[in-house]
Every structure is written in C-alpha cells, then in structure tokens.
Design goal:
Layout (H helix, E strand, L loop, with lengths): L1 H10 L2 H10 L4 E3 L3 E6 L5 E5 L4 E4 L5 E5 L10 E6 L2 E6 L4 E5 L5 E6 L8 E6 L5 E5 L4 E5 L5 E4 L15 E5 L2 E6 L3 E6 L4 E5 L5 E6 L2 E6 L2 E6 L4 E6 L9 E5 L2 E6 L2 E6 L1
Antiparallel strand pairs: 1-24, 2-3, 3-4, 4-5, 6-7, 7-8, 8-9, 10-11, 11-12, 12-13, 14-15, 15-16, 16-17, 18-19, 19-20, 20-21, 22-23, 23-24
C-alpha cells in the first residue's frame, strides 16, 4: 500500500504536487519537545524527547509504552523499529544495543565490544531476527544474534572498493541489505555478502527503502530511485518540507519533525 501511494504521488505533475504541498494541512500534530522519532510499518510512532524519554504512540494517538532509561548508556544514536515486536536502541559511543519488546520493556542488552567491535557505525534488524552491524574498523558487515554472537559476515569491503564505506544507515528488506553512505552513495548486498549495486545517490537525508525503491531528501526536494529500472525521479514538496529536521514515510502518512513537533500529512 505504501509503495502504491508513493508511485501515484511521484506520477503527479510537478506543479500539481507543489500546489498540494504548499496548501495541504496536516492530518495530525504531535508535540512534546521531540528531538528524534521513527515510525514502524503499523503506523506506531516512537519519539525521543529533550529529556531523553522514549515513547511509543499508536496511529490513533494512544500511548503504548514509555522507556525512561534512555541515558543509561550515554546518548541514544538510533532507533530501529522495523520489527514492531522487537525495537533496537543503539548507543554508539558505548557499543551497546538494548532490545525492547512492543511495550518498550527491556528484553536484553548486548555489549558488542565483547565481540571485538569497537567502531560500529550502524545497526539494523536482520532477516532472521538477528542484528546487522557494520564494523567500520574492519570494514565488514556482520550479523549477530541476541546472545551477542557473530553468526555471519561479509568479506572486507576494502577488497572490492577503493574507499571503505561509512554507512549511516542499514536496511534489510526483501532479501537485500542496503547500506547508505551520504558521501559514497548506496551499496546493496545479497544475504551472501555479494555486492549487487553501487549507486551514487549522494547527500541524501532521511534514507528509506520501500519495495524496490529507495527514497531520500535534499532540502525540500524528494528523490526516488527505482532499482529495477535504474531510474531517478525528483519531486519538489515546497513549504511542507521547509525547515524540517527529519521525515519518515509511514502507512498512508508523511511524518515531518520540525521545531520539536511532528506534523503528519496524508499521502
């Protein structure tokens, strides 16, 4: 459904989309001194406040859970809610991953330094309910289980690339693993660690994968790259994205974080 809505959205003439973006009113607004957020595939919203409180809210605005122990391991670097039943909190500076259940209760804590990983750049859910970790020091994408044991990895990526990537995001979807580095672009691997695509999509913010398409933002310009056809489409969103700190595409909604509040618009 999300993919279909976005295909229709990008199919609109540019002047039509710009007019809609400039005049559209948000379908909802969430306030509370929000500094970061993400959205899962059920439309649940996960927000981090200035007081470092993690809160989960349903698409209808009902509070589901709160996690207040966010600062225990330092600054929270990222949240992965790809699996709504298993939320990953990544504390980059302390090499720690905290796994939460769907009510934001802590299930387990993983110290990745015990596996000799001291420069983890990014993490993500893996297809087998494990965790992908990019070890920047070794330039290797590794797969770990909930016990903190490495159960798979690629070869050293420096062997196949002139410069080792420094991905800010990892996404596992439809039997492919996406690594996004704003300076080098997009790397796409299969589950055997074979590099399938290297695409110079540079300088993107808010990288997302939906179906066989990847999306990113440059200011108020929204871009969509179709892996099957190798085509790039651009769409100007005008004032809807002016001054936003972060956007996410969720089920039927576009979510925009701006000045501590989240506005969401129907797609």
């Amino acid at each position: 459904m999300i993919k279909l809505l976005l295909i229709l959205l990008f199919a609109l003439p540019a002047h039509t989309m710009m007019a809609q973006a400039d005049t559209a009113l948000p379908a909802g607004l969430m306030t509370g001194d929000i500094v970061d957020f993400t959205v899962d595939n059920l439309g649940n919203i996960y927000t981090i406040s200035k007081t470092n409180q993690l809160k989960k809210t349903t698409a209808r605005g009902d509070s589901v859970g709160v996690f207040n122990d966010v600062k225990r391991y330092g600054k929270l670097y990222s949240i992965d809610a790809t699996n709504p039943l298993k939320i990953l909190l990544f504390y980059k500076d302390f090499g720690t991953i905290v796994v939460l259940d769907r009510f934001l209760n802590a299930r387990t804590t993983i110290d990745i330094r015990k596996q000799g990983i001291f420069q983890a750049k990014a993490i993500a859910q893996s297809y087998d309910n494990g965790i992908w970790i990019y070890d920047e020091q070794e330039a290797i994408l590794k797969r770990m289980n909930d016990e903190g044991t490495i159960i798979g990895q690629t070869a050293d990526l420096r062997q196949s690339m002139e410069t080792a990537p420094a991905p800010e995001l990892i996404v596992d979807q439809d039997r492919l693993v996406y690594l996004y580095d704003p300076l080098q672009g997009l790397l796409v691997f299969d589950y055997f660690g074979t590099l399938k695509h290297k695409i110079a999509l540079l300088g993107w913010l808010d990288f997302q994968v939906i179906g066989a398409s990847v999306f990113g933002r440059k200011g108020t310009l929204f871009e969509r790259y179709e892996l099957n056809s190798l085509s790039l489409q651009e769409q100007q969103f005008g004032s809807k994205l002016t001054g936003v700190d972060k956007i996410r595409i969720g089920p039927s909604m576009l979510y925009c974080l701006r000045n501590g509040s989240i506005s969401y618009y129907k797609l």
